[in-house]
């Protein structure tokens, strides 16, 4: 919500690992053209129904984050809300490379993931992702940080 309010969400939007489509639906309600993908066919089915009930158009696809074939367009903004940290190191590299292939040259990728730090005493519930590992993975797949 904050990214959208600040005007950081622009152009064609990709909601990576969209789950039930909350972020995609929210952005579509604000006038953005959004595609959401997830590996769960059941999740995508529910996201489609939820978007229809909300009266918005969102294109939802079942897709493997490490391949991202068949999306049929290039994206200007990627919103990743808790997908990146669910992947192992090799999968993160493949995911970053796949996203680089399906985005425009000046695309922005916003990643929300578990970090090695704690926030107000709360630590990550799964293996944390270090800033250095994110930097290495992204820089090695063509992203500019």
Please outline what is shown here:
With 145 residues, the chain is of the alpha/beta class. Helices cover 33% and strands 21% of the residues. It has helices at 2-5, 22-29, 41-54, 89-101, 131-139, and strands spanning 13-16, 34-38, 59-62, 75-81, 103-112.
Commentary on this structure:
The protein is α/β, with parallel strands linked by helices. The protein has helices at residues 2-5, 22-29, 41-54, 89-101, 131-139, and strands at residues 13-16, 34-38, 59-62, 75-81, 103-112. It has a five-stranded parallel sheet with strand order 3-2-1-4-5. Strand 4, helix 4 (89-101) and strand 5 form a beta-alpha-beta unit.
Key descriptive features of the protein:
single chain, 145 residues, alpha/beta, 5-stranded parallel sheet, 5 helices, globular
The spatial strand order of the largest sheet comes to: 3-2-1-4-5
In round numbers, the mean pLDDT is: 92
Shape: globular
**SSE string, helices as H and strands as E:** HEHEHEEHEH
Structural class: alpha/beta
- Which stretches are poorly predicted, pLDDT < 50 over at least 5 residues? none
The helicity comes to 25-40%
Number of distinct beta strands: 5
Largest sheet: 5 strands, parallel
How large, in whole angstroms, is the Cα Rg?
15 Å
Per DSSP, what share of the residues sits in E-state strands of 2 or more residues?
15-25%
Q: First CA to last CA: what distance?
A: 22 Å
- Helical stretch tally: 5
